[in-house]
Amino acid sequence: MPNEYICALDIGTTKICVLIAEVDENNELKIIGVGTAPSEGLRRGVVINLEKTIHAIKKARLEAERMANVEVRAVYAGIAGDHIRSLNGRGVVAVSGDHNTISVDDKRRVIEAAKAVALPFDREIIHIIPQEFIVDDQRGIDDPVGMSGMRLEAEVHIVTCAVTAAQNIWRSIEGAGMTVMDLVLEPLASSYSVLTEDEKSLGVVVLDLGGGTTDIALFCEKAIRHTAIVSLGGRNVTNDLAHGLRTPVENAEKIKVAHGAAILTDSDKDAFVEVPGIGGRAAQRVPKSMLVDIIQPRMEEILTLAARELNKSDYIKMMTTGAVLTGGGSMIPGTVELAEEIFQMPIKLGIPQGIQSVSEEVNKPIHATGVGLLLYGHQNDTLIDGPFESEAHVFEKIVERMKRWFGGGSH
Ligand SMILES: Nc1ncnc2c1ncn2[C@@H]1O[C@H](COP(=O)(O)OP(=O)(O)OP(=O)(O)O)[C@@H](O)[C@H]1O
Ligand SMILES: [Mg+2]
């Protein structure tokens, strides 16, 4: 694929989405193709049925390609699920550059040293995100290259995944006739589309309420500090409605999207909603308050578990700007208000920013990950693994990474 196009693939539990963007003459992105397909081959972000996933990717790809009128070859893909773990690492090296000047190579070596943590054989690192560098006890350095010093330390955030989960995503994408540019942790991708630089500096939480999982990521002082996951999402809300209203899941989903609410507003107190009957039965009218009675406890549970995960991090005190809610699950009216009560902090809805689009469709929280993947791809992971000046470099890195997953090369 020529460099002037970037393609993102969001493989979610409920939907698979392909976004194609072109890079204009001002080096800005414009989305020119959007394709979505329902996803059936995944459970909680993990591929459980390769064939169904490949089929859905192909469908989304075709739709996006038709709209954009370009062909897609390589994609930035998201990865999430309850197999993701994160930990903090630290590395130290002696500065080897001339006149004690820290070189790019020193920076690369110290990051290598920081990632030398003992990993079980079934896990692999997907991101190593430098948080800060320390030069001779001077802390808080963003980029040490060019500074003088004798001793260089790095503190990094390491995100790992189950090798098999990543392999299956890789295989699904290859099976759909595309190659992987990079696999990006989904909440990290979302942070590119819904967070401002100020928020990332001051401290903010991203909460991606998806269909199968709720992903949590903490940012402060410009870096990701903590990631966690709750294995519940919008699909649980739909299932509760299906049970509560005794209606098929597809119906429950439609009712949720059209009439669902997490909080009962005054104007809705006496409102009724039409629920189609099943098996030839007559449609029933149910009070809106009944929908809220079903939806609210589940949303409360999801948000409370997320808040509990957050409180496990030492960084929670630094979340001064509050939390940003994204993902399709956050689109139920009243979710922001409910989250404010539970988190006791300011909450806003994360609408993707920083990108133009020919389709209004993408200006919704449900596309935060996809749009974020495009922005991540555009910035070409300078954040990760130290500097990679050219695309060839990035590719080398990915290919190396993948080779190891598939048993070539050594750890
Ligand atoms: N307008 C809407 N109102 C309420 N809920 C919605 C709306 N649109 C989508 N949803 C819900 O959002 C959820 C899907 O969100 P999203 O697409 O972000 O998840 P995903 O990426 O497929 O899953 P995951 O990230 O967990 O793997 C579904 O449960 C769906 O019911
Ligand atoms: Mg998602």
List keywords for this structure.
alpha/beta; Dna Ligase, domain 1; 11 helices; 6-stranded mixed beta sheet; binds magnesium ion; about 30% strand; globular; disordered C terminus; binds adenosine-5'-triphosphate; about 400 residues; 5-stranded mixed beta sheet
Helices, strands, pairings?
Blueprint: E1 5-11, E2 15-23, E3 29-38, E4 42-43, E5 46-47, H1 50-68, E6 74-79, E7 85-94, H2 104-114, E8 123-135, E9 138-141, E10 151-162, H3 163-175, E11 179-185, H4 186-194, H5 197-202, E12 204-209, E13 214-220, E14 223-230, H6 234-245, H7 249-259, E15 272-275, E16 284-287, H8 288-311, E17 323-326, H9 335-343, E18 347-349, E19 356-357, H10 368-379, H11 391-405
Parallel strand pairs: 1-6, 3-19, 6-11, 12-17, 17-18
Antiparallel strand pairs: 1-2, 2-3, 4-5, 7-10, 8-9, 8-10, 12-13, 13-14, 15-16
Helix pairs in contact: 1-3, 4-10, 6-7, 6-8, 8-9
Overview of the molecule:
The chain has helices at residues 50-68, 104-114, 163-175, 186-194, 197-202, 234-245, 249-259, 288-311, 335-343, 368-379, 391-405; strands at 5-11, 15-23, 29-38, 42-43, 46-47, 74-79, 85-94, 123-135, 138-141, 151-162, 179-185, 204-209, 214-220, 223-230, 272-275, 284-287, 323-326, 347-349, 356-357. The protein is α/β, with parallel strands linked by helices and 411 residues long. It has a domain at 85-162: Dna Ligase, domain 1. It has a six-stranded mixed beta sheet with strand order 11-6-1-2-3-19, with helices on both faces. The longest helix has 24 residues, at 288-311. It starts with a strand and ends in a 6-residue tail after the last helix.
